[in-house]
């Protein structure tokens, strides 16, 4: 029987095996523990092999992509015009057109917006600050006091604000007067004149001076007007007061002592210029200015800022209680103005009567039986 002998491949002849062992011999497949430990020690002891690890390639890729993104981020962007024809691949970068965007906004805007803006401007003009009207009213304990105070209060309530009503009482502030002032709805200040008013005939002089001291102390800026509680006033008068720059005056209708005729006292005007005075023969040669106490008003800054008006007087502007009755007006006006050139006629041409001084409040009115004099504002009469 023929036997076939297989020859070894030359590939296997060229291999070198450790210790001369065959490729599948037990000696080649199994290695001693000493050999394994020596192999590990040899691979870890090489520093260059550890540095050439698999992290180099991702690092260079990350760095390349980072540089590309940085360059693209720094590239300016703008409006790109779309082109036609042969220049299809030619792009021009332009900044945004501000003028065109503004024109588009103006075209889209609604007309109602302009109307609202105009209405806002009109409202701002309407809400221009008005001058403060400072009304000074002296009062005292008498039978018709509550009636007179309420009548003046109802008139002041109809005047456009701001209005400050300074009510001055003598000796002490009564509870009844305070109650009336609180219920009027008018901004007020309740003052007390502690000076003795029984020694002079016109007790309102010192009460008005108390109000003037208060205005000067607190530097109230407005137009001061002396309004007695027994007079009758029109709303047009208080509206005209805010037009006064320095000193304004107007004619006042007065009831004669005989109560059978009316007397006109005040300025004669040519427009707003004062050129003369309405007067009677009795006081023609004695008074410099023929004006009633309720027939003039003046700027309050004259009291506490005399340099602004170049006033020669260094003493405070006050009414004089040493002069005769009826001369307090002219002596006070002489401290405020030099002559008629510093006055303003109100209203123009002084053509209308704005208030009446009737002199109807008699001093000797007896109290009815059962009334309490100390609380006359809340007097009650027992009805049988």
UniProtKB/TrEMBL annotation:
What segment(s) does the record annotate as region Disordered? 1-52
Q: Name a Pfam family for this protein.
A: Glyco_transf_43
Q: Which residues cross the membrane?
A: 59-78
Mind telling me which Gene3D superfamilies this protein's record contains?
Spore Coat Polysaccharide Biosynthesis Protein SpsA, Chain A
Q: Which InterPro entries match?
A: Glyco_trans_43, Nucleotide-diphossugar_trans
SUPFAM superfamilies registered for this protein in UniProt: Nucleotide-diphospho-sugar transferases (SSF53448)
Where is this protein primarily located? Answer: Golgi
Q: Where is the composition biased (Low complexity)?
A: 25-47
Q: Which UniProt keywords apply?
A: Cell wall biogenesis/degradation, Glycoprotein, Golgi apparatus, Membrane, Signal-anchor, Transferase, Transmembrane, Transmembrane helix
Name the membrane topology term: Single-pass type II membrane protein
Keyword Electron transport in the entry? The reply is no
Q: Which domain of life is it from?
A: Eukaryota
Its EC number(s): 2.4.-.-
Q: Where is the signal peptide?
A: none
Keyword presence, Isomerase: no
Intracellular or extracellular location(s):
Golgi apparatus membrane
Family as reported in the entry's similarity comment: Belongs to the glycosyltransferase 43 family.
Q: What does this protein do?
A: Involved in the synthesis of glucuronoxylan hemicellulose in secondary cell walls.
Q: What is this protein called?
A: Glycosyltransferases
Q: Which species is the source of this protein? A: Brassica cretica (Mustard)
């Amino acid at each position: 029987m023929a036997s076939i002998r297989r020859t070894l491949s030359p590939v296997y002849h060229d291999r070198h095996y450790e210790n001369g062992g065959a490729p599948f011999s037990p000696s080649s497949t199994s290695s001693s523990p000493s050999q394994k430990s020596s192999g590990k020690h040899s691979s870890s002891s090489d520093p260059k092999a550890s540095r050439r690890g698999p992290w180099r390639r991702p690092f260079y890729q990350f760095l390349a992509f980072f540089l590309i993104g940085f360059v693209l981020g720094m590239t300016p962007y703008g409006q790109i015009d779309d082109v036609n024809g042969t220049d299809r691949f030619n792009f021009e970068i332009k900044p945004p057109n501000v003028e065109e965007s503004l024109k588009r906004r103006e075209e889209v805007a609604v007309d109602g917006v302009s109307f609202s803006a105009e209405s806002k401007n009109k409202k701002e003009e309407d809400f221009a600050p008005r001058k403060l009207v400072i009304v000074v009213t002296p009062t005292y304990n008498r039978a018709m006091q509550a009636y007179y105070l309420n009548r003046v209060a109802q008139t002041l309530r109809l005047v456009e604000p701001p209005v400050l009503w300074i009510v001055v009482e003598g000796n002490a502030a009564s509870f009844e007067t305070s109650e009336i002032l609180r219920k009027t709805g008018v901004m007020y200040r309740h003052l007390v004149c502690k000076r003795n008013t029984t020694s002079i005939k016109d007790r309102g002089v010192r009460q008005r001076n108390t109000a003037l001291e208060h205005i000067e102390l607190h530097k109230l800026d407005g137009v001061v007007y002396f309004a007695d509680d027994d007079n009758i006033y029109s709303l047009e008068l208080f509206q005209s007061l805010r037009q006064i720059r320095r000193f304004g005056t107007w004619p006042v209708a007065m009831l004669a002592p005989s109560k059978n005729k009316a007397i006109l006292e005040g300025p004669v005007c040519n427009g707003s210029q004062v050129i003369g005075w309405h007067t009677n023969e009795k006081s023609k040669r004695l008074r410099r200015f023929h004006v009633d106490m309720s027939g003039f008003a003046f700027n309050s800054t004259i009291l506490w800022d005399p340099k602004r008006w170049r006033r020669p007087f260094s003493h405070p502007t006050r009414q004089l209680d040493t002069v005769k009755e009826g001369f307090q007006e002219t002596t006070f006006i002489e401290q405020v103005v030099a002559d008629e050139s510093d006055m303003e006629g109100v209203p123009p041409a002084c053509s209308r009567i704005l208030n009446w001084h009737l002199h109807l409040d008699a001093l000797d009115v007896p109290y009815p039986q059962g009334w309490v004099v100390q609380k006359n504002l809340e007097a009650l009469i027992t009805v049988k």
